[in-house]
Specification:
By secondary structure, this protein is of the alpha/beta class. It has a single domain, classed as TIM Barrel (Alpha-Beta Barrel), CATH 3.20.20.370. 35% of the residues lie in helices and 15% in strands. The chain contains seven helices and eleven strands. Strands 1, 2, 3, 4, 5, 8, 9, 10 and 11 form a nine-stranded mixed beta sheet that branches. Strands 6-7 form a two-stranded antiparallel sheet. β2, α2 and β3 form a beta-alpha-beta unit. The radius of gyration is 18 Å and the shape is globular. The structure holds zinc ion.
């Protein structure tokens, strides 16, 4: 690869969970926030957003019906990707809440959910491009199911994060996209045929962060738990890493639809996406990111 091929790619990884406190069951209110993020993605990254479709004990089918299906269809038609996002723990009901542990560790629970939702959306002509766990949690058993159902990409990884109770084990994960080793989700596969699942990590500045709240913070590209200056600093660190490593960088920026009624946070999202583009960033969908990586290897 010549230095001319070395580029900085980013995906906009959008978590579309409804706010658990603010108008959680009001479809119109949720769709208004979705419309805000759609306008940001259209204006700032040419429609290249990768947005989650939540399924959870609380809302197993809500986002797979009615006006939400129309929204996903328009999202894909305008150039975006869809992500399957089971929120099994955070959006559990009082009856289903686990006393300890995580549903993510139970493949007998997760497997049928992933298989049925992937099949439903494929039948609707809206196949999932990617998968995202809640709280950065995913297991190798889940990855195996993704490979089987043809979801080629995972976008759960946050390098530097080890939250055992959330099944988030990314301590030494690569800071740019990689094909995942079948034996260790935080390691790249040794050769191409070894694993079909492509991982796109969140952008990280490489510094240890206080993670007691179990939220990505100002050391990551995450709109709602950071601020504009910190987001710029993280992007600058990624630019520098790309220059030093001599390889293309592919990372994700996380944002949440629930926050999009806040003018401050939606404005900040526009500003950081603009900054990233003005400083070498090329927006791609998750599908395009994988194609770029494949073409460069
Ligand atoms: Zn979520």
């Amino acid at each position: 690869m010549t230095s001319n091929d070395r580029k900085l790619y980013f995906i906009v990884n959008i978590d579309s969970d409804p706010d658990p406190e603010d108008t959680p069951r009001d479809d119109t209110a949720v769709l208004e926030k979705y419309a805000v993020v759609k306008s940001i993605v259209d204006d700032c990254v040419d429609g290249k957003g990768t947005i989650c479709v939540q399924t959870s004990p609380m809302y197993r089918d809500r986002f797979f019906a009615g006006p939400f299906m129309d929204f996903w269809r328009a999202w894909m038609a305008d150039g975006g990707d869809l992500t399957l996002h089971p929120e099994e723990d955070l959006y559990s009901t009082p009856e289903t809440r686990l006393a300890s542990g995580s549903y993510y560790s139970d493949i007998g629970h997760m497997g049928p959910i992933i298989r049925s939702k992937a099949a439903f959306m494929a039948d609707a002509g809206l196949p999932f491009a990617a998968y995202k766990g809640g709280y950065q949690g995913v297991t190798l058993d889940i990855i195996k199911v993704l490979a089987k159902v043809g979801i080629p990409i995972d976008v759960t990884c946050a390098p530097g994060i080890d939250w055992p109770e959330k099944l988030a084990a990314w301590g030494d994960a690569p800071t740019s996209a990689y094909y995942m080793s079948p034996n260790d989700r935080a390691r790249a596969a040794e050769h191409r045929g070894e694993s079909p699942v492509f991982e796109i990590p969140f952008g990280w500045d490489g510094q240890a962060s206080d993670t007691t709240r179990r939220l990505l913070n100002e050391h990551y590209l995450v709109n709602e738990f950071s601020n504009y200056e910190a987001l710029c600093r993280v992007w600058d660190a990624i630019v520098e890493r790309g220059a030093h490593s001599g390889a293309s960088q592919i990372v994700g920026l996380l944002c949440h639809t629930y926050a999009m009624q806040s003018a401050k946070l939606s404005g900040q999202c526009r500003k950081i996406l603009t900054y990233m583009r003005e400083h070498g960033g090329i927006p791609v969908t998750a599908t395009e990111a994988k194609a770029v990586y494949d073409a460069q290897r």
